[in-house]
Amino acid sequence: MRFGVNYTPSRGWFHHWLDFDLDDVRADLDSVAALGLDHIRVFPLWPLFQPNRTLIRPRAVEQLVQLVDAAGERGLDVNVDGLQGHLSSFDFVPSWTTTWHRRNLFTDPGVVDAQARLLTELATALADRPHFLGMTVGNEVNQFSGPPHPDPDRIRPGEAGSWLRRMLAACEEGAPGKAHLHASYDAAFHDGTHPFTPAHSARLGAMTAVHSWVFNGTAQRYGAGDIAERHAAYLVELSKAWAEDAARPVWLQEVGAPAPHVPPGRAAAFTEATVRHVLDCPGVWGVTWWCSHDVDRALADFPELEYGLGLLTNDREVKPAGEVFARLAREHRSAGASGPSGSTALPGSAALPEPPAPRRTALVLDAGDVEDAPGRAVCAPGGAFFEAWMRGASGGGRPAVVLAQRAGDAAHLAARGITEVVAVDEAA
């Protein structure tokens, strides 16, 4: 289990690429490493790296490599998001895709070719770096494909799948054998009309990424207590229902404590409860908190909740949530140092804490067709499936999730360690 952060530079936020200062980056990474974390996720801004469809700026690529090298010097592995894309309510798309040059980001052949070239070039530049984990295609790029985006690039699920396969292949071409993946915000699991589907998330790429944000209606409906604290674990388990490989890892790639939905005084407790619930889910690759450093309030027009999400302040001081996250990472690492069942690990061995036991009872989910899941609204906050799962989890159970089409598949259930299936209307 890996513990890391989404790296938000303390000086200039992601606009730091315009005035890249390696000393500032190193100081930020020192503060991350001091928390005892083991990886970061970083975000090149697409318009700055590829300002023209046929121009990828060598200097920008060189600066990204410098950042990855600086992280490696501090023992931090790095995942790189290739297409930014969308960050903290702002869209960053190149001018050659908008207004007079308006083209669909997912289906226009020239745009798709250019995106693939960028991903391949970034992956190639990093392929020989030992601390480079792999590429994520982009940060919640699926939000461009439908509402509530004000100017969506509309596509169908088949087109979304084709685009994802092309982008993942471009990453693999540049850095063969690395852990390349893609990431969607949770409309992929909650909105039956959304073209990016749970099957895309759970079947394409090296692992499944989930992004858990309780401002999606969870905190508004249920408050910041137990149900909100279980939301990340719920998404982890929900995503497994569509996986074809029972051993496919799930990465909780984004999770945070957004105020006022989580009151600042509860941020540390929310962090601890959220992570502990996720630690009870089998098959989790890691937790990557959003984010490393707060957004400087000198920067205007962010939604209020975005300013205070860091584990550290802009002055690189550790906040209460950061202290909790660092302690949980230490505890997990210490459990691994002794090996399973308290045995002594050999020097240099990869001892791990004992993994959580399989979740033996699975709640049956009927979301319709497996590929498109048109009925997935039942999985959203307030939906019948969401509430049934939360009742089971809050009542002391450890529910897994199985699709209705697989509820009678003995081999599938056995591979996941499931011994009992329960219908939603039978759930306690």
Automatic annotation (TrEMBL):
Annotated region (Disordered), positions in chain: 332-357
SUPFAM superfamilies per UniProt: (Trans)glycosidases
Residue stretches of biased makeup (Low complexity): 335-352
Domain of life from the UniProt record: Bacteria
InterPro entries named among the record's database cross-references: GH (IPR017853)
Descriptive protein name: Glycosyl hydrolase
Species in which this protein is naturally found: Streptomyces hiroshimensis
